[in-house]
Amino acid sequence: MKGELPPEQYLALSGFNDYLKNMKISSSFSPFLFSMFQNNDAFVSSAQCSDSFTDTYYGVLLEIKENGRICTAQEVKERILNQKPFYSFWVTDQVSFWAESGMRKVERAILCSILGNGTNSLKDSYVMTFLIDPDEMVEEILMGQMGEEGIVQISDSSGQVLISRGDSGSLPVSMERGTLHTTSGNYQILSDRAGETGWMVQIGVPQAFITGQVKSLIRLVIVYAGIGAALLVAAVLLLVYRQFSSVKKLLLLCPADQKEWKRNRNEYEILASVLTEMKEHTDQFREDLERIKQQNQTIITENFIVRGIAGENDKKILREMWNPFPEFYCMAVMRTRGEEDICQMAALFMEKALVETLKKRVIPVHIGAEEEVFLLEMKVQEEPSIKPVVDQLERISRLLLHEQGIVTHIGVSTIATRMENVSNCYKQARQILMAHNQDNQRIVEGYCSDWKLLGNQLTGLEWLQKLAVLLSCGEREQVHSLIEKWKKECRKSPLAFEHQKMQIFFSIRSAICDTCEQTGISVGDEELPVYQGEDTPEKMAGKLIQASDLVMNRLDEKKKSRNHQLKARILSYLEEHFEEEGLTAFRICDQIGISEKYLIQFVKEQTGESFTVFLERKRIEKAMDYLKTTDFSNEVIAAKCGFSAVNTFYRVFRKRVGMSPGAYRRECIDSYHLEEKKQK
């Protein structure tokens, strides 16, 4: 552009500025580079860009000193733009410039200017200048290892010395490109001339530095060669030993006859004969291994289903066995009455029929003598309801009954979405199985009919199970909080709530009823909430909270009654058995069915004493009664009061009463005679 730049061209300045920033990264020898233009006053550097170099930029963000004075902006511009050769060099006293980290000064800075190399009208229209710090250039050439001993001299095509460091007077005036010279045996001289710039670079490398580097390299090579040879020998010996010891261990495990060991010459011949025999029975071995593998998988899977998944390691094992683990699944528990052969036949028939009719992946797991568990994979694209599965299982059960005379009972869990719910699904399916056997129709069935709600754990299987646990534990505040969160979720999804309102209500109602049955609480049907089609989430939540409070109130009443009975039973047991030898807190807890912690806490609350102190006091009181009213010996009294040894009886009695048993008896006798005399 000529003259003043229009505003719409400022974007081009910014783009050129980014270009120079990227160039500076690759031009490590130059801490600052900039471009100036023949036809306008624009200025672009690796740090800033400006449309007015003369009036705005120079003197503030850039300043050049030469011959002890600061050059003007016009002088700088003419000096750089009016150069003749393609490459030119300007040796200054000092250059101050603004870089990314702030203002910086470079002494004896060299400005290397290069004419624009564009084509047509762009040719010679701009000049790009690289600022060179002599100290950094010398440091980079000498690699920082030669210090001040190295010699560097750089001159331009006219012979002007641009950079000089060290004893440069000993360098030859003229050198051929790529040749190597030696002077006085002190330096190895390397020289080269850059074809385009015309630079003449001469470097003197101290001979002592070269010798030291070579010696260090030789020592390093010798050390590594020695270490390598030692490691190689050690590795060979270790490998030979391991191979031989492995053969010996393998021979001990192989079913080889001891006579063969003596008949053959060495271990390798024995091993070869054993392997030949094993090869002849490969098919049998494979069948045995496959059978063992299946048995192990069944045992592991059964353990996870019954016990539950404890952590990430359990999940990893299941993923490897079920590869991949179903994203959606439900679980069916089948119970068959009859001989073991009949149960196995029914399980095989059920598995085959499920695979053929449902076209789903089925994972069978044998639980106990009469139960078989089937984990059924549900497809994401299907309507996620267990009704088709239940219908098919009932049809297969009827076939087994009519054709084979085998009676089966089946319970199916709701659909789950996470691996952690495997155990919960099994428990739920088993509860449903038990409910079927007892003709209990309050069963959560087909709850998740919209696959979009499967990921919402507040209204899924996990939520129902959490509600049931909190109810049975009497956690009133947490139950209220759980239902309130559920209410908020229903508000967020009004369409889904309307679509599944009835199923949601009766599923939660069933969870409440199941809690009542499991805890033995009596709640009449007239006390349970009633479903109404016009119920809003708020009304439904209110009904459910009211029903939950009713259940937990009954639980509290039952706990209080049970606590009174339990306390009376504990006191009665202690009164009846405290004289028995070997009576411990563990034995009492085992007989009554409570924990040691509860017993110890109960005794402390009732008597203010620890269990041990209370037991000793009761036994000593009984012993005092024996001493006062009978002529039993101390050995007999100790045995009757539960003391394991008479010495223990003496020690505890003296500690409690403050005197020995004999002294206490004499005191009682004296008191009796004294009282008798008074009466006479």
Structure write-up:
This protein is α+β, with helices and mostly antiparallel strands and 680 residues long. Helix content is 55%, strand content 15%. It has a 6-stranded antiparallel beta sheet, with helices on both faces. Helix 10 crosses helix 11 (387-404), helix 14 (476-492) runs antiparallel to helix 16 (537-577) and helix 15 packs parallel to helix 16 (537-577). The chain is elongated. The N and C termini lie far apart (145 Å).
Terminus-to-terminus distance: 145 Å
Shape verdict: elongated
Work out the radius of gyration. Answer: 49 Å
Total number of helices: 22
Mean pLDDT: 76
Summarize the structure.
With 680 residues, this protein is of the alpha+beta class.
Give the SSE map.
Blueprint (H helix, E strand, L loop, with lengths): L9 H17 L5 E6 L5 E3 L3 E2 L2 H5 L4 E5 L2 E2 L2 H9 L5 E5 L2 E6 L2 E6 L2 E6 L10 E7 L1 H9 L8 E5 L5 E5 L14 E4 L3 E7 L6 E7 H47 L4 H6 L3 H14 L1 H26 L4 H11 L5 E9 L3 H19 L3 E6 L3 E8 L8 H18 L3 E5 L9 H16 L23 H13 L2 H17 L1 H26 L17 H41 L7 H8 L3 H12 L3 H19 L4 H7 L5 H12 L3 H19 L1
Antiparallel strand pairs: 1-2, 1-10, 2-3, 4-5, 4-7, 6-9, 7-8, 9-10, 11-12, 11-15, 13-14, 14-15, 16-18, 16-19, 17-18
Helix pairs in contact: 5-7, 8-12, 10-11, 13-15, 14-16, 15-16
Name a few traits of the molecule:
680 residues, alpha+beta, six-stranded antiparallel beta sheet, five-stranded antiparallel beta sheet, 22 helices
